[in-house]
Design brief:
It is a single chain. This protein has 579 residues and is an alpha/beta fold. Helix content is 35%, strand content 24%. The chain is built from twelve helices and 24 strands. The strands form six sheets. The chain has a nine-stranded mixed beta sheet, with helices on both faces. Strands 10, 11, 14, 15, 20 and 21 form a six-stranded parallel beta sheet that branches.
């Protein structure tokens, strides 16, 4: 009997092994504490691209290990080694069965956002969706006393039970409380279909719970002095710089190397204002860090500081054409084949790439020639195409400000509530501006207070704004006082961060409070004769100081000789008297 049973047992065991290997069970990655995130949604088309970049901005604060997949294309191996899955949809639609099956086999944390969650499987049955409602307030479950007023926004009304934990609430005119982010074990649900500021700020806070990342409860902040160009009022800039030095506060200065007069078209370089160069040198050596804010901060006939430089705002499109050319604006619908549109787009992006590379190269080289070393970049009016960010990342490792999310409309823009590293910045770190800027009207301070309040609801929120020096030091003191009252805030010093800036002739690095530079002056002078002329013009001044130094040394030696001679005479006299 034993001999007959052995083959049967072997067949049964092999069958069990085969069945187990055939069952596709997806395990969450447990080896690393850093989240590995799969984001699934409808990310095609203009709206889809914008939604993807918004999610990118928020999630990349917690990890750079993010994979975005269309819900139509996601496969089983996309779930492999993922700790978290984020599903987003802002429209009612039918979810593919393949995705539902893959998600049911996933054992990690899932965050569902928006519509269609009833189709996601049994684990999502605790989410009872009702008709939509409008809210105008939002607040954290951990601190209901601190509410944030928002513009009216539509949310999905959901029912909850005792087993469900609520992290975020909304409230409308009726004062009825609506759960916005709920959790049941490893499943989270966010009952919104649009991600906009300031709601995105509090979403950023509760994402710490979703990703189980408890960042230090410490705010970070910076002040940026904006639009410093060759015709700026140096005395006003210096008064602010002196104040910040006294307060021992690090800060940033957004510098525009060239001013172009809108009427005469005359160009003014920083070298045309020795007083400003001295001021910027003082700033760089006393707590300030230079940020390149474009090269001319204008396009066509617009005024420096007012115009756009990396976006044609008149036609609401990237710089796909020359200054004097009438642009040809085409979209994918203007082509019979997708391939033809892609060819057209690549040709236009070549024009844009050359334009941006030239501007950034000139900006970095010119500042470095004056021994001013930019550590980050800020696009004028925060406007730049996605291709523009790719090009900029080849020159800078740090970007300051907010980000344009669309290549069709510059006004589709968003920042982040904290420091983040979105994929579409191609490796650049974003230091977001979050509280706006000071205006001459008093209500601007009220706007800043409200923005600061929302940022303080994020455990590691960024409190960052900018100020135009032409407004004077008194207005700046008001803004500074407001910021200094933020508790437990660490001022960002760019020199303390790891930054890398490079052109073919200049390299700049910073870390631990020090800057390291490498400049090939021979090639730099060959690239633009003005750089050499600047140093030649400075030569008489340098020689004068050399002669003054030599003369001073000669005078000191002469005085020393006289004193020595007198000392020797006294010594001889006393020696003679003793004899």
């Amino acid at each position: 009997m034993g001999k007959h049973w052995k083959p049967i047992i072997c067949v049964v065991l092999l069958g069990i092994i085969f069945i187990e290997s055939s069952i596709h069970v997806i395990h969450a990655k447990k080896l690393s504490s850093t989240p590995a995130v799969l984001v699934v949604g409808k990310f095609d088309g203009e709206k889809g691209h914008v939604n993807q970049r918004k999610l990118d901005l928020l999630i990349s604060h917690f990890t750079t290990n993010i994979v975005f997949k269309s819900i139509k294309e996601v496969k089983g191996n996309d779930f492999q080694d993922r700790t978290h899955v984020v599903y987003f949809d802002d429209q009612l639609a039918t979810i593919p069965n393949d995705f539902v099956e893959l998600l049911s086999d996933f054992h990690g944390t899932v965050l569902a956002i928006g519509e269609n969650v009833a189709q996601l499987g049994e684990r999502f049955a605790f989410i009872k969706q009702n008709e939509k409602r409008n809210i105008n307030q939002i607040y954290l479950a951990t601190d209901k006393a601190e509410t944030l007023s928002i513009q009216k926004q539509s949310i999905i009304n959901i029912e909850t039970s005792k087993e469900v934990k609520t992290w975020l609430f909304g409230k409308g005119d009726s004062s009825k409380e609506y759960p916005l982010l709920i959790q049941n074990e490893s499943i989270f649900y966010l009952a919104i279909t649009t991600i906009e500021m300031p709601v995105a700020t509090l979403i950023g806070e509760v994402l710490h719970e979703v990703f189980s990342v408890d960042h230090p409860h410490e705010y970070q902040g910076y002040i940026r002095l904006e639009d410093v160009h060759p015709l700026v009022e140096v005395d006003k800039l210096m008064k602010i710089a002196q104040l910040l030095k006294e307060r021992k506060i690090p800060y940033m200065v957004a510098v525009i190397p060239v001013y172009i007069h809108p009427q005469t078209k005359e160009k003014y370089h920083l070298s045309d204002s020795p007083e400003l160069l001295n001021a910027l040198s003082f700033i760089q050596n006393n707590g300030g860090s230079i940020v390149l804010h474009g090269y001319t901060h204008q396009f066509r006939d617009s005024e420096t500081g007012e115009g756009f430089e990396f976006w044609d705002v008149e036609h609401n499109m990237p710089i796909y054409h020359g200054v004097k050319e009438t642009p040809e604006k085409k979209g994918i619908d203007d082509f019979a084949k997708r391939e033809d549109y892609d060819i057209y787009l690549r040709e236009k992006q070549k024009i844009e790439t050359t334009y941006i590379e030239k501007k950034l190269t000139k900006g970095i080289n010119e500042l470095a020639n004056y021994r001013l070393y930019p550590l980050a970049f800020e696009a004028p009016h925060y406007t730049m195409s996605q291709n523009g960010y790719q090009i900029t990342s080849q020159f800078f490792s740090t970007y300051v400000g907010q980000l344009q999310l669309s290549d069709q409309n510059w006004q589709k823009m968003m920042g982040a509530p904290y420091i983040t590293n979105p994929q579409f910045l191609n490796g650049m770190t974003l230091l977001p501006e979050t509280i706006g800027y000071m205006e001459q009207a008093s209500f601007s301070l009220q706007k800043m207070r409200k923005a600061i309040k929302s940022q303080m609801m994020v455990r590691d929120g960024m409190v960052a704004g900018f100020y135009h020096p032409y407004l004077g030091v008194e207005g700046f003191k008001e803004m500074l006082t407001l910021l200094e009252h933020v508790p437990n805030m660490k001022w960002i010093d760019l020199k303390q961060m790891d930054n890398e800036v490079a052109t073919s002739h200049v390299t700049i690095q910073s870390n631990d409070g020090e800057m390291h530079t490498g400049i090939d002056y021979l090639k730099l002078f060959q690239s633009d004769k003005r750089y050499l002329i600047y140093h030649i013009k400075k030569l008489p001044q340098v020689l004068l100081w050399i002669f003054i130094g030599i003369g001073s040394c000669a005078v000191c030696l002469f005085i020393y000789y006289i004193l020595l001679n007198k000392h020797q005479q006294r010594s001889r006299y006393h020696s003679y008297r003793r004899k």
